[in-house]
């Protein structure tokens, strides 16, 4: 163990409580209890803490460590790039080789006519950038009122003010000022309504209804996750993304696919939306682009948006110090090289079947396990009081948190998606390199 004595660990925990304000953590509980776990090292699907206890990382940390922990080739790519040129700016016309090569590579993998990429340092920055680019596109086309963004209930798009406002989970709006901009939330996954079925009792508040009420002339873009992650592993129903895309085309609204979780193989295709063969106008990526080994995100734009933006003859006043970071881009390039070389998508599709076998077993044995689902290795299930009647647990029963806690005691890290009142969803998303024995374990 790194820390030989409990005194040393207590000391570290004391410093943690005193100096480190943690993201997405209950502050009061943290101060009372200290860190749940302090990670020290990782290897494949396993992570080990400072006490030398080893866990299975069943959610790839924040669904991002796709090639697993301790991947030496990614470490080497970062080391070599840092020794050559750790950092350089991409502002004012400056460039670097790794950013250029990664841009070309990502565009070559992307569907349809997605043609260029703007780099960021993560998913929230990508979504904020996507909103700005969408508005800017309409602005340059003389449609200055097209500014509103529609997002979907239960979605997660990030924590900056714009991406946080687009997020459709209330728990992320209680942090001061986190829902300030002009974003309208639509109900989720109502394929029939989006196709125009006004007799559907859920029609009010669907995307189509919002467009009719607000007027297409005021709306810049609609953002969707092909599979909603943090909101509870909700896979877009058949026909839904196509219906949204058609609605966008009908009304001259841009479609943004948030591929921050789904991108780079998580769902068994290179991008989540590829499962439905729909081509968005804008796509945001992050997480899986480097498997979490470096902070990197990007926004892909289609040919029309690119052709419009490149006509602009003043400074494009948007960018981040770490846009096109050479070390992050070197890691991204190596990450994609390994994804392709080792045929990781194939493994994802095979392991999806193994995971489903486990789910079938669980559903057979356990009367509370309902709605088991996975797309690639983005999986989840509901816990219900009575699955035959779709009856949820009483709101006081935090069944998903309970199960996740019990798994943790048995050295398996999972995630509860129980932000929605009365919903108890357990999320599973192991690294994409997971093997059959590890899934069984
Ligand atoms: N979009 C989706 C779908 C996400 O799951 C996340 C993070 O979990 C984000 C955006 C935000 O990314 P980041 O935390 O890198 O800013």
UniProtKB/TrEMBL annotation:
Keywords: Aminotransferase, Pyridoxal phosphate, Transferase. SUPFAM superfamilies: PLP-dependent transferases (SSF53383). It comes from Alteribacillus bidgolensis. This is Adenosylmethionine-8-amino-7-oxononanoate aminotransferase. Coiled coil: none annotated. InterPro entries: Aminotrans_3, Aminotrans_3_PPA_site, PyrdxlP-dep_Trfase, PyrdxlP-dep_Trfase_major, PyrdxlP-dep_Trfase_small. Belongs to the class-III pyridoxal-phosphate-dependent aminotransferase family. Pfam families: Aminotran_3. One of its GO terms (molecular function) is pyridoxal phosphate binding.
């Amino acid at each position: 163990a790194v820390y030989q004595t409990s005194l040393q660990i207590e000391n570290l925990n004391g410093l943690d409580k005193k100096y480190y304000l943690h993201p997405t953590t209950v502050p009061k509980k943290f101060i009372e209890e200290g860190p749940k776990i302090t990670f020290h090292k990782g290897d494949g699907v396993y992570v080990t803490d400072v006490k030398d206890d080893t866990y299975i990382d069943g959610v790839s940390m924040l669904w991002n460590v796709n090639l697993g922990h301790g991947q030496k080739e990614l470490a080497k790519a970062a080391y070599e790039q840092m020794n050559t040129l750790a950092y350089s700016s991409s502002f004012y016309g400056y460039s670097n080789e790794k950013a250029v090569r990664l841009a070309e590579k990502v565009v070559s993998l992307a569907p349809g006519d997605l043609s260029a990429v703007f780099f960021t340092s993560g998913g929230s920055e990508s979504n904020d950038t996507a909103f700005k680019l969408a508005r800017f596109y309409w602005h340059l086309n003389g449609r200055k009122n097209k500014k509103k963004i529609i997002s979907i209930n239960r979605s997660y798009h990030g924590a900056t003010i714009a991406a946080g406002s687009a997020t459709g989970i209330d728990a992320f709006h209680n942090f001061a000022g986190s829902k300030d901009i002009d974003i309208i939330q639509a109900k989720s996954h109502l394929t029939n309504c989006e196709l125009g079925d006004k007799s559907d009792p859920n029609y009010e508040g669907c995307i189509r209804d919002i467009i009719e009420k607000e007027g297409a002339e005021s709306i810049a873009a609609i953002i969707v996750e092909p599979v909603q992650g943090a909101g509870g592993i909700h896979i877009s129903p058949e026909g839904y993304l196509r219906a949204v895309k058609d609605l966008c085309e009908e009304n001259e609204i841009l479609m943004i696919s948030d591929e921050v979780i789904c991108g780079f193989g998580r769902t068994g295709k290179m991008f989540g939306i590829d499962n439905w063969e729909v081509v968005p106008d804008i796509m945001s990526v992050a997480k899986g682009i480097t498997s979490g080994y470096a902070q990197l995100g990007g926004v892909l734009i289609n040919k029309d948006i690119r052709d419009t933006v490149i006509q602009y003859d003043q400074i494009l006043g948007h960018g981040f110090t770490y846009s096109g970071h050479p070390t992050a881009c070197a890691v991204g390039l190596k990450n994609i090289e390994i994804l392709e070389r080792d045929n990781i998508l194939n493994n994802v599709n095979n392991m999806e079947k193994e995971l489903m076998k486990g789910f079938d077993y669980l559903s057979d044995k356990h009367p509370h396990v309902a709605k088991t689902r996975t797309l690639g290795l983005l999986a989840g299930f509901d816990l219900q009081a009575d699955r035959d009647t779709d009856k949820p647990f009483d709101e006081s029963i935090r069944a998903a948190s309970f199960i996740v806690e019990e798994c943790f005691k048995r050295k398996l890290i999972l995630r509860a998606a129980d932000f929605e009142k009365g919903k108890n969803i357990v999320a599973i998303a192991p690294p994409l390199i997971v093997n059959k024995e590890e899934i069984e374990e």
